[in-house]
Amino acid sequence: MSPSTVPRAARAVAMMTIVALAALVGCTSSSDNGSQAGSLRILAGSEVKDMVSLLEEASKATGVDVELSYTGSIQGAELVASGGAAGKYDAIWFPNNRYLSLLPGADSQTGESVKIMSSPVVLGLAPIVAARLGWDKQAPTWAQIADAAAAGQFTYGMTNPAASNSGFGALVSVATALSGTGSALTVDDIAPVVPELQKFASAQKLTAGSSGWLADQFVDTPGIDGIVNYESVLLGLKEAGTPLTIVTPSDGVMISDYPLTLLAGADEEHKQAFDALTTWLTGPAIQKRIVEQVHRRPAVAGVDTGTQFGDAVLFETPFPNTIDVANTLVMTYLEAVRSPSQEVFVLDISGSMEGERIEALRQALANLAGADTSTLGGFTKFRSGERVTMLPFSNTPGEETVFDIPAQSEGFDYGQITAYVDNLDTDGGTAVYDTLEKAYGIAKQQRAERPNTYVSVVLMTDGENNRGQSFEEFSAKWAKLDAAGIPTFVILFGDANVEEMAQLAQLTGGQTFDAIGGDLAQAFQDIRGYQ
Amino acid sequence: MSIAARRGIGVALAVVLVVGIGVAVVWGRNSGEAKPGDLVTVQGIIGSEKKPFFDDPEVAAVLARHGYVVKVRTAGSRQIATSADLSGVDFVFPSSAPAGERIKEVTGRSTSYAPFYSPMAVATFEPIVGLLEAAGIARQDANGQWLFDVGKYLEAVASGTRWNDLPGAATAYNTSRSLLLSSTDIRTSNSAAMYLSIVSYVASGNNIVTTAEQRDAIIDQMSALFLQQGFSASSSEEPFDDYLSQGVGSKPLVMVYEAQFLGQKMDAATSGAITDDMVLMYPTPTVLSKHTLVPLTDAGDEVGRLLAEDPQLQALAAQHGFRTSDTAVFASTLRDHGLDVPPLPVDIVEPPAFESLEVMITAITARYNTAVAPAKPASEPSSPTP
Predict the structure, then answer these.
(1) Is the full-model pTM beyond 0.90?
(2) Which chain A positions have a beta carbon within 8 Å of B175's beta carbon?
(3) Distance between CA atoms of residues B141 and B138, nearest Å
(4) CB–CB contact A264 B10 (8 Å)
(5) Which of A420, A509, B38, B345 could disulfide-pair with A487, CB 3.0 to 4.6 Å?
(6) Residues of A in contact with B383 (CB under 8 A)
(7) Does A519 contact B385 at a Cβ distance shorter than 8 Å?
(8) E strands of B190-314, at which residues?
């Protein structure tokens, strides 16, 4: 299944709320004959969504009821390690368990584990660019890639390492290679490689919170030469008609091995279901189909893999051995390496937002201003060099307020953001599109002022547009706004018009985030992965 | 059942058969043939590398004929020896003699069984063997057996050798990664402790480490062998499976139990997993992993006796690659599968005493922790937020 064949709206980032869970259960299917061989509730990363049809088949073949719920890799890891997944889920399935394994408590929360397949994180380049650089013949080192990036010889997209495993894996590989030690990265290795990492990051023109969405953006955005992603995603893109040369850096790549892992609290019945499912998935016939259908490498030896993976040796980057190395690397990347971002938050403060809703909004934004002290809170906080614009609206667009966070955020008073949202008062109607037009005016001006940044709009509304121009009118003038490349990330909240919001996201190259179940803070954090 | 693909990332006593352990009721043990329904359930805690053996339906069938259903959960041998909850458990079956001795001390038991053993070995690939031979780290003995010179290896690591420093690497294995053997996590896994037994012996001038002075002198060097690997798995099946399925780019050199390699070769279900370019080398010196069963109940004792004495169970153990106490069984089983019988390595040393090994592992564990910067403020769960 190619990522680009799935409608965007259907791939909204899943959140760990009951409603999202129910809406996104990928494959609850009972066996046809009615006999039950148990059930398995799996907490999974969005990276295994392309396995849903095979899981449905597995469900029929084994009689095991499979229920998938999706979450981000870091949220998932923290939930499992803290014991929060026990009892709610029987198993987990993420691209890998390495980050999780570094968290205190993980060992006692996880049990038997079976690797189902694997895929390295590599660079896909337009064939003409790969040939120009000579990388179609001779695999470059990460340092050579960084040099070519700094020299402006190619551009690429990569996911946010704080939000997505492929970006994180690429960051570990490139930092480890640039450190030049030949061994696992340590905390002390990180600061010295920042200048080289900046060279690498200077050619990055697309970011995303998920590997699949990045692939879509890459296809839809002209002028980007390459994409850092799972080999499986790149092969899927090739299959769907995007020509790519796969470049595997010679000094190490991160390989995800997709371990389906039983949680420690699972009982005998779930264990049997787990055994049945993993035995089915690792059988030679199914492994061959995994190779053919979802372009992963097999987890068991002796499976014919054909020619799609090439015959280059995949040198595996050693993974850090403490959580502090992993987290320091991500924080350093966010604060000192990547291009800063600018975003306009379009905030509905109409009458219907009064009460719990405005409180939830205040909390969500306070979290991004530092109130959430968890690891993920640290990763999603407004960062150094970022420009955050708040644009409230009700009957008409309000006045914008700009928070400019200096390159060294230490002296910045994040309390002014919290104070600002605390003072928002609710009243009146909902002029979504008049305000959005104003937001795009601001965003375009900000992009012109700082061309080398990621610029986006976030729309949070709890109801239908009932003032000013309609979606149709906005849609008709979209091309004239000349705002291509500035996506709107839409938070579905309260009584939002889901259909229209999905169209808006599609129109602007954005994405919807579901908070109708109530978890507004989670939705804001998820959006941070895309900014 | 495939030997591949079974493992636990948490060594934690994670496999959850614990519930209802107290009900390991002995219904009455009849000697001779057992009637269906009369089976006695026996609970054991074992090292993960023996799980494929206990999962083997043939093993279960033989045990059932003797009246037993053996249920096992896996744990690292260190964990079995130091922290496992043994209530309701009929036997423990760690992978080393020192761990077995320790459990006997702790539980006050005097008997133990050593039904099979396995030398530690290094799984690698043809091109790597060629590079190591040219570098003087590997050589072939008169029998054609490949030997891995631990002393030369430690010198190469100490001087920071990269793979592409070796003559011939440009075509055979062109990467700037450090020449480093992969093991399991020293903090949890027995096979890593066996590896430490080997390297500590060589680093101490071919002496078994017994004193604090000896330990202090080598601890930096020993720590580096583990820390430089980065993340390592807590179960010995995992690096071996990576070796099999991901190959030379992931695991050019991996410390394994000989039984893992031989068992994989004999496993009909996965025949073809060991390809022609895969080579097993024996470290000089090496240590023997003596799988030691310590019975905690009469039923556990009987299972131990059966594993050690029953010819069918011994043959099945040999099929899983273990060297049996009756060496003829091991040899004939390998021959039956068309394999050459590897001679037992001659250069074998004893592992340090349990306490001595334990002190070294604790010291290395502390290095992992000091590699961590000052703790961040206590974090709260990231989600859900009210």
Answers:
(1) no
(2) 250-252, 313, 315
(3) 10
(4) yes
(5) A509
(6) 16, 75, 79, 376, 519, 521-522, 525
(7) yes
(8) 254-257, 278-284, 288-295
